[in-house]
């Protein structure tokens, strides 16, 4: 795994002698992503420079050095990622006469691009990657990203230069960098805990969408006014070479003829194939193991494909309701892995928080970023590459919210919306004791039990849900923290996303299909994969995700929904495969997630830190948040009248990030 960076300077802001130094500086900011080697390639006459930091995993010799020039000399590439089928592609290339200097997948990618062109070459790739490719013949810069969005790439215009890099800190290392916080993007952070692609926290800086290629020439790189990076608003836009929507819609149609038994057998074959491919490395390799369904299955398949014990890693917490270490230990013992476990003290966990603004150099507010950083640090002490079980929830219906939303909507849709909305208004006028009795009846009728909390804000939430006009509105509300972020962010206007655009959803899918699709397009790349990429790369650990092999994804969508999601429990297909390797009793338990007791810490050891960041005079002076709603939530949280940990964590992560930004 690596870090890439570079720029296109069509207006000649830099002297020719400065190109290499600037490219090296941009790449140096990514040393954690590539501590083993570095390099740059510049062409001042064409106004382009590429920088690279290398974490050596495949062909760790100097022959894998980047930037790398193609055999013909036409293309120059900086690349971050792994192409898991590179050995087969290499053999194909040799059959048509291609020769190779080394054994890296980078050189194979270049050979494929020379033969087929950028877009058609990517259709042949299996892997996770981003790259910047300079075409010396056409004077075009191509930026590309993998199908599921496992690896990140930012780009944008600043001071007349087109800048790009694996992380924002690389763009900030360019002398033309001019950063202005985008308040509209800040509303997205408040709603979801992340900023949705293609936006970033900075105006004019974007994330490249998954499965896309963006091609930029001199005119575009100069910041031409009619150039738009967003696929849905017209103008020049990234080209998609694979579509999850197309995959999902085809799968929904195909599953009508699918045999559950045959579909499960093919899924198991593809999972074995994916795990075998992703176990290829020229450096030590292991796995992150939580003891849940997904990570246990990945470790089981790794062990089945290995002739020696797999190294597995987990962390535990002293707070029992957050500790899964015992489950992971039992799974590791049964599979015979070489298991390493670390029990993290609250002090150790809280120390990570001070580094989060640097690790996530765009504000990011999923609190499971803390244990993810800790387990990545633990694994890196012994291995350079690790496999994880991420992606299983979005592919195989693993989140409780899917079934809660589906069950609740089955009840709500029986009553016309105008009547429900009117009843909700009337209910809001009743005493709390009567509200509780009525809502208890609704919860009892739901197929998936809805737990009622005696706190007043919970009843208010139930009344809001009862008045939802559609299933789409219900789900968007379900995955939101601040429900009205424009009331929190000063001068913020919330941008539209896929969650606001039913016309962009899959056709003929059931409600569960829509929720999994939406999460795979938004929450998965912008939250889950962002979290694991930044946390692992901060520790110089390459993290691979076998469940997101696009061949697994495509097959999963073609499976019968009942066997894929498993009815009321989720992950039915994964569970059946896992039970071949691990007794059901070791993994069957309620889903815990991968969290820390942030709510308790904010009332305890983190209270002073949080109070300073949320001080009313400070909020007013900095001018990003309206103090009223923030301070009201803070007081209610401290007094135990409500648990606003997620809403407060979003504000705190921005405040901590902004403090670090203004200090440097």
State the gist of this model.
The chain has 664 residues and is an alpha+beta fold.
Features:
664 residues; alpha+beta; 6-stranded antiparallel beta sheet; 31 helices; 17 strands; 45% helix; 14% strand; globular
What does this structure look like?
This protein is of the alpha+beta class and 664 residues long. It has a 6-stranded antiparallel beta sheet. Strands 4-5-6-7-11-12 form a 6-stranded antiparallel beta sheet. The longest helix is centred in the middle third of the chain and has 19 residues, at 260-278. The protein is globular, with a radius of gyration of 25 Å. The two termini are 27 Å apart. Residues 224-236 and 446-457 have low confidence and may be disordered.
Task: Furnish the topology, listing elements before pairings.
Blueprint: E1 2-8, H1 19-28, E2 37-43, E3 48-54, E4 68-69, E5 75-83, H2 86-95, H3 105-116, H4 118-122, E6 127-135, E7 140-145, E8 154-158, E9 161-165, H5 168-172, H6 183-192, E10 205-207, E11 212-216, H7 218-221, E12 239-240, H8 244-254, H9 260-278, E13 285-288, H10 293-304, E14 311-317, H11 325-335, E15 338-344, H12 346-353, H13 356-359, H14 369-380, E16 385-387, H15 392-396, H16 400-412, H17 417-427, H18 432-445, H19 456-466, H20 471-478, H21 511-521, H22 523-538, E17 542-544, H23 550-558, H24 561-566, H25 572-578, H26 584-587, H27 598-603, H28 607-613, H29 616-622, H30 627-638, H31 645-663
Helix pairs in contact: 2-3, 6-31, 8-23, 9-23, 10-11, 10-25, 12-14, 14-22, 16-20, 21-22, 30-31
């Amino acid at each position: 795994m690596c870090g890439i960076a570079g720029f296109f300077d069509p207006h000649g802001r830099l002297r020719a002698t400065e190109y290499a130094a600037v490219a090296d500086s941009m790449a140096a900011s990514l040393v954690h992503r590539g501590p083993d080697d570095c390099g740059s390639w510049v062409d001042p006459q064409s106004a382009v420079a590429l920088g690279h930091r290398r974490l050596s995993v495949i062909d760790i010799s100097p022959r894998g050095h980047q930037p790398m020039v193609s055999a013909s000399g036409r293309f120059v590439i900086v690349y971050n990622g792994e192409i898991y089928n590179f050995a087969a592609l290499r053999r194909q290339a040799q059959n048509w006469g291609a020769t190779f200097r080394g054994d890296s997948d980078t050189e194979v990618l270049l050979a494929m691009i020379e033969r087929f062109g950028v877009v058609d070459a990517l259709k042949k790739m299996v892997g996770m990657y981003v790259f910047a490719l300079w075409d010396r013949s056409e004077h075009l810069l191509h930026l590309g990203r993998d199908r599921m969005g496992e690896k990140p790439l930012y780009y944008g215009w600043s001071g007349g230069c087109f800048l790009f890099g694996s992380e924002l800190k690389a763009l900030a290392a360019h002398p033309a960098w001019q950063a202005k916080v985008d308040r509209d993007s800040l509303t997205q952070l408040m709603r979801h805990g992340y900023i949705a692609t293609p936006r970033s926290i900075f105006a004019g800086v974007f994330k490249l969408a998954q499965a896309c290629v963006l091609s930029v020439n001199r005119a575009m790189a100069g910041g031409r006014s009619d150039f738009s990076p967003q696929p849905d608003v017209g103008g020049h836009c990234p080209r998609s070479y694979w579509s999850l929507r197309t995959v999902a819609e085809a799968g929904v149609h195909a599953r009508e003829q699918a045999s559950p038994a045959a579909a499960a057998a093919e899924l198991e074959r593809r999972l074995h194939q994916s795990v075998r491919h992703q176990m290829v490395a020229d450096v030590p390799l292991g796995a992150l193991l939580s003891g849940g369904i997904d990570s246990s299955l990945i470790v089981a398949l790794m062990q089945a494909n290995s002739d020696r014990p797999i190294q597995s890693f987990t962390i535990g917490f002293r707070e029992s309701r957050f500790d899964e270490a015992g489950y992971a230990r039992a799974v590791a013992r049964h599979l015979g892995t070489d298991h390493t476990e670390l029990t993290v003290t609250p002090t150790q966990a809280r120390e990570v928080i001070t580094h989060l603004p640097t690790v996530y150099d765009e504000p990011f507010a999923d609190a499971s970023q803390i244990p993810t950083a800790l387990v990545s640090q633990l694994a890196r002490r012994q291995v350079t590459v690790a496999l994880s079980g991420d992606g299983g929830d979005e592919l195989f219906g693993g989140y409780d919210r899917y079934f809660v939303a589906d069950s609740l909507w089955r009840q709500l849709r029986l009553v016309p919306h105008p009547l429900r909305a009117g009843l909700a208004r009337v209910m809001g006028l009743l005493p709390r004791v009567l509200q509780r009795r009525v809502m208890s009846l609704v919860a009892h009728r739901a197929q998936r039990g809805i737990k009622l909390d005696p706190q007043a804000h919970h009843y208010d939430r139930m009344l809001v849900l009862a008045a939802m006009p559609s299933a789409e509105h219900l789900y968007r509300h379900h995955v939101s923290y601040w429900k009205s972020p424009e009331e929190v962010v000063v001068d913020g206007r919330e941008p539209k996303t896929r969650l606001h655009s039913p016309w962009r959803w899959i056709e003929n899918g059931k409600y569960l299909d829509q929720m999994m699709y939406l999460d795979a397009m938004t929450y998965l790349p912008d939250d889950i994969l962002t979290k694991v990429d930044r946390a692992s790369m901060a520790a110089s650990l390459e993290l691979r995700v076998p469940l997101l092999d696009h061949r697994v994804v495509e097959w999963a969508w073609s499976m019968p929904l009942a066997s894929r999601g498993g009815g009321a429990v989720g992950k039915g297909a994964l569970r059946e495969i896992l039970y071949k390797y691990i007794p059901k009793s070791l993994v069957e338990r309620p889903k815990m997630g991968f969290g820390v007791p942030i709510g308790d810490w904010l009332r305890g050891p983190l209270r002073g830190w949080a109070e300073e960041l949320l001080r009313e005079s400070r909020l007013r002076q900095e001018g990003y948040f309206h103090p009223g709603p923030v301070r009201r939530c803070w007081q209610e949280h401290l007094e135990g009248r409500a648990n606003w940990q997620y809403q407060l964590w979003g504000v705190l992560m921005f405040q901590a990030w902004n403090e670090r930004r203004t200090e440097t």
